[in-house]
Amino acid sequence: MIECQNGIHIKGTNFWLDARRKVDFSFISHAHIDHAVRHKEILTTKETARLYEHRFGRAKFNILEYNQPKRFDSAYFVTHHAHGSKFEKPKSKDGIKVELFPSGHILGGAQILLEIEGVRIVYTGDLKLRKCLTAKKAEVKKCDILIMESTFGLPRYIFPDRKEIIDQITEFVDQALSFGQVPIFLAYSLGKAQEIMKILGLRGYKTSVHQAIFKIAKIYEKFGVKFKNYEHYQAEDLEGKVLIVPPYVRGSRMIKKIPKKRVAILTGWAIDSGCKDWFGADEAFPLSDHADFSELMEYTKLAEPQKIYTVHGIPEFPDFLRKEGFDAEPFKESTKVTKTFSKELLLNYVLFIRD
Question: Hey, where are the domains in the chain?
């Protein structure tokens, strides 16, 4: 039995997946703020744990390496995390078998496979299938129930070939530098910023990075992701360098006082014609940490689920999955689902509530 109410919850236990409010025990798929909350105990990867500590402070972690299954006795959640609360007695005698595997989203990003009474449930969190330079390539595991993100779940969101995007980015840099301008990239401080640092460093460009990005890059390096030709931002030392900052800095004095500049935003939403205007940028490049439409479709075909529920994105995506023969629907508020599967799924019902 699963419910989704401010996160995904295994009914009858205190086991949550990306809970959006503080709970006793939750899996955290990655350290972006929209997925990470100050829980009492957190199941995650070692990389995400370190990034979480950097952003939120110390916490109690239950660390799992990728592809190393661990079985949790159902009593663990009731006995150790109930704190006086009354939980329904779990129906599974064998507990919950858990395995984390790469999502390809950012450093430490993980999907989770739950096996309960022979039923395989995968929750993807945010993911992408394309290779990148700063995160492990995503894996796909076959499952009975797939709970997947759908951020770019419309056919128009097909990203160009990665090499083509990088060539366009370097052309933007070269043109700005040739005119004596400072090329500036707006990139989220965790994940996207480190990827563009790696790309530009390998191509021989010198980068100056915002403090928030610099500190996270140092954590990446502790986990073996090395960067070239970068330094902490110094206002008086930008000549011949590429500046990388978080998007929220765009309207700040830091940017306004740079007299000659060209600004680009790095985001999958660059596919939309108005993207440059949204961010006050001169250019927009679809370098994304998320799967595009074709990757989402490819993932589902490889996973071969009997049932799909979509989250974190475009609610129309299941329409396209159904055209491909999948039993798919988005999470909807107060939706009850009753379904009999070939493996006699443990779910008596599934209750989904999406904020």
Answer: 2-156+290-353, 162-285
The model's pTM is 0.89
135-188 pLDDT, tens per residue? Answer: 999 999 999 999 999 999 999 999 999 999 999 999 999 999 999 999 999 999
- Report the alpha-carbon distance of residue 33 to residue 94 in Å, rounded: 33
**CATH code for residues 2-156+290-353:** 3.60.15.10
Q: For 184-213, how does the pLDDT look when each residue is reduced to its tens digit (9 = 90+)?
A: 999 999 999 999 999 999 999 999 999 999
